[in-house]
Structure formats: structure tokens, C-alpha cells
Write a structure and sequence with these properties.
11 strands; 25% strand
Length: 247
């Protein structure tokens, strides 16, 4: 009996020590908040789908990490490539996110806010037309306010990569969907142009508009357009909006 008692005591001591050390052991492993964290953990990681935790351990989401463009480390929060996902969606889905990180998706306004309010981020917008021409627009500062402030956009510091500047005009505006109108127009821009965005009255770009195939003037400005580059009647083949912490 004495031997059994000593064994149980040793086991209890072992469990107690592990419980005491658990916070120390787990604190050494930092969950990645964005693709920059993933890159910093292993700089050989290729571009692809990864899991990040924008708000903490309970907020796991999948994203596409661009580890190549303009120095890499980019967390893609919006991606259109083939029209496989319907982007004409209500407020709650734009808040939480939708789609497939391996293809077309929207990361979610709450995730974007949580990332960009913690530190300073920059923005890269890559786009491609149906002739294979690729251009970009880059902004040295990008952030999104909280939901109580309408997820208002703050963007500045434009650098031209051939696309022209379609976002600065949206700076300081709230996000709108067909069921939550926060634009400055008398009607609803999201309903009029079949998308969701930081509309003004109404837009210079409509990246979440209807996926069409190049030049199409059937319905004015409802496509995936970037006005300074291709105008309002050309829907892009691909566009992606991506962020990373400023070095």
C-alpha cells in the first residue's frame, strides 16, 4: 500500500508541475495574426492558403497569402479570379466573410478591422485584364474602423503601378451593402451597381461587383471595374486586395 501511495503522490506532483508550466510552454508558440507572421516564422513558405488568427485563438480563418508580389508577406482580404462566387451579399456576410481562400473570397470586415487597428498596414491592389496585362495600385496606409463607425475606410499614400488611383476618392467613407446603405448618394449604391463597397455617390472602383468578361456596356458600371485604368464598362479578369504591416 505504501508503494502505491508513493506512486500516486509522484503522479499528482508531475501533473501539478505540468499545469504550472503550461502557460510558460504555450506562450512560446505565437499564433499567426496575418501572413506576415507566417512568413517571419518560415521565410521559405510559398504563396498559398494558410490559417491565421486575426482576433486571437478563437478566430481561426483561412486566407490566401501572397509571398511573392512586391516583397511578399501580403494577407489577401479580397480576391476575384473567375466569377465562381457571388459577391452580391448582405451586410452580415460582408462582416464575417465568405467564399473560398483557394479561389474567390472576402475575408470579412471585422477581421480586416481587427488587423488594421492594431498596427499600421499598407495596401496593394493587383489586377489583370483579359489580355493578360497586369497592373497595380499601392497605398502606404490602410485601415478600417470598427462596426459602430460603419467600418469606415482610411487609405492614403498612393503609388502608381499602372492602374491609376481609384481608392483615394473612397477615403473616409463607410461600407455599404444592399441591406445597409451608408453611402452619400440619395439612393443605394450597392443596389444600383450590384456590389458592396466603401461607396461614395457612388464609385471609382467596384471590385465586388458582378463578374463579367471584359468590355460590356450592357448595364453601366456594375462590373468588377477600376475606372482610372479600364473605365466603367470593362470588367476585370482578376483583382485582389492585400495588406501587410508597414516595415
Amino acid at each position: 500500500m505504501g508503494h502505491i501511495s508513493r506512486t500516486l503522490t509522484m503522479k499528482l506532483l508531475s501533473v501539478t508541475v505540468l499545469l504550472i508550466l503550461a502557460p510558460v510552454l504555450t506562450s512560446c508558440t505565437k499564433l499567426p495574426a496575418d501572413c506576415s507572421d507566417i512568413y517571419n516564422q518560415d521565410k521559405s513558405q510559398p504563396s498559398g492558403v494558410y490559417t491565421i488568427y486575426p482576433i486571437g485563438s478563437t478566430s481561426a480563418v483561412q486566407v490566401y497569402c501572397d509571398m511573392k508580389s512586391e516583397g511578399g508577406r501580403w494577407t489577401v482580404f479580397q480576391r476575384r479570379v473567375d466569377g465562381s462566387v457571388n459577391f452580391y451579399r448582405p451586410w452580415d456576410q460582408y462582416k464575417m466573410g465568405f467564399g473560398n481562400a483557394a479561389g474567390e473570397y472576402w475575408l470579412g470586415l471585422e477581421n480586416i478591422h481587427q488587423l488594421t487597428h492594431q498596427e499600421k498596414y499598407e495596401l496593394l491592389v493587383d489586377m489583370e485584364d483579359f489580355n493578360g496585362t497586369r497592373v497595380f495600385a499601392r497605398y502606404s496606409s490602410f485601415s478600417v474602423d470598427a462596426e459602430c463607425d460603419g467600418y469606415e475606410l482610411h487609405v492614403s499614400g498612393f503609388t502608381n503601378g499602372g492602374a491609376g488611383d481609384a481608392l483615394s476618392g473612397h477615403n473616409g467613407h463607410k461600407f455599404s451593402t444592399f441591406d445597409k446603405d451608408q453611402d452619400t448618394w440619395g439612393s443605394n449604391c450597392a443596389k444600383k451597381f450590384l456590389g458592396a463597397f466603401w461607396y461614395t455617390a457612388c464609385h471609382y472602383t467596384n471590385p465586388n461587383g458582378v463578374y463579367r468578361w471584359g468590355a460590356d456596356s450592357t448595364i453601366y458600371a456594375v462590373g468588377v471595374d477600376w475606372q482610372p485604368w479600364k473605365g466603367y464598362d470593362y470588367s476585370l479578369k482578376a483583382i485582389s486586395m492585400k495588406i501587410r504591416p508597414v516595415s
